[in-house]
Amino acid sequence: MAGLGEWLSVDTQASRPLFDQLRTQIIDAVRDGRLTPGTRLPTVRELAGQLGLAVNTVARAYRELETAGVLETRGRFGTFVSRVDPADTAMAAAAQNFVSTARALGVEKSEAIRYVESAFD
Length: 121
Known about the structure:
This protein is mostly helical. The protein is about 60% helix and about 5% strand. The protein has helices at about 5, 20-30, 45-50, 55-65, 85-105, 110-120, and strands at about 40, 70-75, 80.
């Protein structure tokens, strides 16, 4: 997948670590559809070479994305975009916990929604 290195880029002068820049760009690409579920990513060495990064930098980004459920490694077959969006799973679980807490405290739906809206502000 030579195309990945064409739109991924890191700023070596930025204060954010390179692995984190790479990690967030891959997450953004998954969320906006540039990387669809099941897409095979370049190997760590291939992507490091395309971007001029150390192998350990790409390996750390991939490892953190795998831990977060964004990527999955299928042994010698490679690293792929997960078929399930981890944000869906995490947000559904958080919402369920929030609703359970609201109900336990006797907070009505409309009032609970106001709490969420104010948290975003």
